[in-house]
Amino acid sequence: MGPAFVAAVAYIDPGNFATNITAGARFGYLLVWVVIVSNLMAMLIQYLSAKAGIATGRNLPELCRDNFRPAVTRGLWVQAELVAVATDLAEVLGGAIALRLLFGLPLLVGGLITAVVAFALLGVQSRGARPFELAITGMLMVVLAGFLYSLVLGGIDTGAAASGLVPRFDGADSVMVAAGMLGATVMPHVIYLHGALTQNRYARGTERERLALLHSQRLDVVVAMSIAGLINLSMLVVAAQVLSGISPPVETIEAARDGLGVALGHPAAVLFALALLASGFAASGVGTLAGQVVMQGFLQRRIPLVLRRLVTLAPALVVIAAGVDPTRALVISQVVLSFGIPFVLIPLVLLTRRRDVMGALVNRRSTTAVAAIVAGVITLLNVTLIALTVMS
Q: In sequence order, what DSSP letters do the residues of 148-164 get, joined into one string?
């Protein structure tokens, strides 16, 4: 147990705060089904990524480099780096907003502090996988506690929540928000990272060892992704129950914090800000580690972590310095992330279905079929989102 908990942090990063709270505040329980479906997709996808690392001893970027033409590999690397920029924007902004909510710090100062904390987490990782996993899991629990507190106080409309399980939309805006939720939940960079977390650290010399490890990693994925799904669902339910229909409407994370404070008391507002802070710190560290895996895997090159961090951090700091609305920037970053999902899912499905790559751990036909459907649905949603954006 452990690698999936590191991956799970990316599924409850600050982008999820923005998209889930926006969904709940604007549309009530309408998009509950998006959280559920996205989480089930995440379980399958992270399981396939972990399985590829166990079966081959290689992570997904390395497998792409080994099995695809150089031009394809370079194209995949370029889009992966663009996704990393969007990811860093969400994580740094989230940490900066949380520090402003808690201590009144300017966003630019908060962004720099978030970057420093990410380096500190990577320093923990240099001492071994387990200390890093424990630190990340601890932050995951902080986020969970913050939202469970508000969920218990705010309650839930079970009838409305049940109706939200029926897949449907309510206009183009709800499609846009749903795509952002999907981009925030199914995260491309941790699909690349998960295989790297399982590829070298376990005894996997024999088929029996690989099968036993696969069983444990399946449990790891189910438990960790279930916790992440519970957090995402709690975000949406709290927003739908407490923040929906109030005047003025909740359109920013700051307004969400204030709304929780008015409705549920000051502790709920403080716990919300602490959850956002833990999310931004943890996700920023995981994102930097994933970026290193991407570059090393696709290009066989390692660069100093400081330089790696600056490459994706600079655009986030520019956005903060330009005074762009933070919540709007968070939502847009998640939409950008959703564009990158097909470029990681399609190679993952193609490679894990090949016996010459996976050996005895090759996908069953049913697994490949379901994974292909998932990739197709996500791609269709992204195409629809692009069309709606152009028309508007």
A: HHHHHHH---HHHHHHT
